[in-house]
Model the fold of this input.
Amino acid sequence: MDILSNFSINQKIFIIYLIIINLIALITFLIDKIRARNNDWRISEGVLLLLAVIGGSSGALIGMVLFRHKTSKLKFTITIPLIFIIHRILEVYVFNYLN
Done:
């Protein structure tokens, strides 16, 4: 049984995009955490926030919590959850009103 069989082609593409961008965001938060521990070259906060804005808010939020990364930065503790909420609202709209 195909999990995506009930979705239109555009919705399938959107779902695949979300999976990929969220994995990228999660891995990027992990890499930055490892680099922070090693006092190595870091990934900019702008890149981390950009990944969240372009659809990776779930991966970013999971990365923050799971790796305890950027949780002391107000910019992240407010912005990432806010973007996450906005994305969930947009996803409901996309899947219910755009077929």
The radius of gyration is 15 Å. Residues 9 and 93 are 16 Å apart (CA to CA). DSSP finds three helices and no strands in the chain. The longest helix spans residues 9-37.
